[in-house]
Amino acid sequence: MTDLSNIRIVLVEPLYSGNVGSISRAMANMGVRELFLVAPQIVDGWEEGERLACHAYDLLKKRREVATLTEAIDDCVAVVGTTARLGLYRQHVRTPHESAPELICLAGQGKVALLFGREDKGLFNEEIGVCTHLMRVPTANDYVSLNLAQAVMVCCYELFLALGSYEPPQEKSDLAPAGHRNQMMKMWRQLLLEIGFMEQDKADHMMQGVQRIFARGALTVDDVHILMGMARQADWAAKQRKITS
Amino acid sequence: MTDLSNIRIVLVEPLYSGNVGSISRAMANMGVRELFLVAPQIVDGWEEGERLACHAYDLLKKRREVATLTEAIDDCVAVVGTTARLGLYRQHVRTPHESAPELICLAGQGKVALLFGREDKGLFNEEIGVCTHLMRVPTANDYVSLNLAQAVMVCCYELFLALGSYEPPQEKSDLAPAGHRNQMMKMWRQLLLEIGFMEQDKADHMMQGVQRIFARGALTVDDVHILMGMARQADWAAKQRKITS
Questions:
Q1: Of A217, A102, A235, A94, which is closest to residue B211 (Cα–Cα)?
Q2: Is the dihedral of CA B5, B135, B29, A166 positive or negative?
């Protein structure tokens, strides 16, 4: 990696155009070029956003607007959720400084999406659930909630700094894109229901725990094939029981 | 130094209250409390500033406004000028990351002022002239000029990191010791043989792939329990087939 062209900033349901404009400028300052908005809920028109984008007006204009999160991340080899909170399912949070070298490395193999949630509510648990990495900007204890544009700046800044320390990846197999990984998680969900590991009403909760384990490290295409094969075979074995009984 | 109470942010003739508000919030996020404005030239009233300060409204209200730069820095043991430009008088510029440890050290001995210039013109040469240190936020070449509030954020963020007060979130569940993990891998080996995912003579090879996936990240005790539970349940479901058939 010699640049950040594979880094994608994804804003989920942003409310204020001013933030989107400031983010465009921050991205341009740090050499990040791809901006996706998922179901934007802009309440104040685009005037403020265009003003604050300043000389990054082009980047702002070239933003992609999509209806669902899936469309924004399906081709990504890593999906990085940002959160101001700690707590359940958010234990594996690292700082941007800690995460940046690995993310630069991953960006050498494909698109890396950085997800930022709504100004008022952040990312929902099901959105956190599709993330392969979680990041939190460290703050003083008195006031932990960063302005959206400031959070994007800190993350882009750390990626920009980390560009220097890139080392080529060692995996032989390509990294699996989000769509492939999600397909795998669906197979596991079906299996775990089938074998009675979890009940339907606990499935969402339990799958977040499973997701957390499988998604902690980067999964290669080979990894995903192994995990799919295991799920398929166990599912088959469990179903034989019903057929033969 | 255990906090950033000796760090002072000094804005020289700022124009937009929105920036001052955003700066107040960024300062509060990073635990910096002292804000000085030198001869502020606010053109847009304070409404926007108060809105963007958000929960840092108190910090914004407690800002000191002074007529001259001298009043803002006279009691400081170090005066750090920030600049987007390189050039005459600006050769000794370092990045915030490089400067932060020394500035934290100096702040142990007295007030340290960080000077930020006008939104449109930055700091003048005579203002740069009174600085003991110079700092520049590294940027991509295409767009080197940061928004004022973003520049303050990056500098405060680096000071906060250098303070070392931040402690990364701890896993709530302890990391699983090797013995526990190995016990889990034995259960998976048995399961994968049982369900016919692999033959005995390929088991060693295949288990290395499985091991690689599960062992990539640190596994907590909770993770190991989940993975054991899955293996146990799938094994049970597969065995039912034999019993019932």
A1: A217
A2: negative
Residues of B in contact with A240 (CB under 8 A): 238, 241, 245
Angstrom distance (rounded) from CA A102 to CA B184 = 28
Q: Is B28 on the interface with A (CB under 8 A)?
A: yes
A92 touches chain B (CB under 8 A): yes
Q: What Cα–Cα distance (Å) separates residue B245 from each residue in B164, B200, B232, B238?
A: 63, 23, 20, 11
For chain B positions 190-219, those within 8 Å of chain A (CB to CB) are 191-192, 194-197, 206, 209-210, 212-214, 216-219
Q: Give the closest-approach CA distance of A31 to chain B in angstroms.
A: 5
Give the residue-averaged pLDDT of B198-211: 85
Which among B28, B161, B169 is the nearest to A86, CB-wise? Answer: B169
Q: How far apart are CA A167 and CA A109, in angstroms?
A: 12
Identify whether the C-beta of residue A82 lies closer than 8 Å to the C-beta of residue A116.
yes
For tokens 């049970």, the residue is B236
CA distance A230 to chain B (A): 6
pLDDT of B167 above 80? no
Mean pLDDT over each residue of chain A, to the nearest integer: 88
Of B30, B153, B240, the CB nearest to A153: B153
The closest CB to that of A229, out of B197, B212, B222, belongs to B197
Burial class (CB in 10 A: 0-12, 13-18, 19+), B126: exposed
B7-12 β-sheet, strand order: B64-66, B34-38, B7-12, B111-116, B76-82, B133-135, B93-94
Contact A198, B198 (CB under 8 A): no
- pLDDT band at B243; cut points 50, 70, 90: low
- When pLDDT is averaged across residues A28-41 and rounded to a whole number, the result is 97
Q: Is pTM, for the whole model, over 0.95?
A: no
Cα(A16)–Cα(A151) distance, integer angstroms = 15
The answer to whether the complex's ipTM is over 0.90 is no
